[in-house]
């Protein structure tokens, strides 16, 4: 493994970060990485991307994202000096895809966000670390299935992937450990069918018109 364990010193972490379930859990219990692919899911605002960004910076990636070893001014992420990682002995290589800045650090001019993600992931090499923040953003369902295939192939080629995702398709990568962050912390080892993302999509597909009508009525009530 490239990253084996993550710890957070609560005395050094900002209070707003400690108020999120992901950061609070890791600060109390630590976070061991035991699988070639770890997929972190859950609702918005629970600290998933903050945790991933802290891991990336602690391992040596630029906070803005990009290829390992590219020298950039070192911005300080919210968990700077608070989050540390225990690493293995493997030589460093890989890529950090940060959702907010992906298009500013890639060189795929003229491509859509989704196209640039697929072009990027198709160039990933074996025996490297990949930290991916919502890589499904901008991808069609079919493209997400292709991404699933790419990630599974990386796991079989001595790579390590840690990804934050809301996609029930990406969560289906065979052999991945699924980690769901909820209101009360982190639950590990879920089946894809047990995740919030999968259950929400299943319910919608079972009754799309009924769910759409219900949500439209709810929105009208909120606005009214």
TrEMBL record:
Q: In which compartments does the protein localize?
A: Cell membrane
- List, alphabetically, the GO terms of the cellular component aspect: plasma membrane
InterPro entries according to UniProt: AAA+_ATPase, ATPase_AAA_core, P-loop_NTPase, Siderophore_ABC-ATPase
Query: Does the UniProt entry include the keyword Transmembrane?
Result: no
Where primarily located? membrane
Location of the AAA+ ATPase domain = 34-202
Topology with regard to the membrane? Answer: Peripheral membrane protein
Protein name per UniProt: AAA family ATPase
Q: Which organism is it from?
A: Corynebacterium wankanglinii
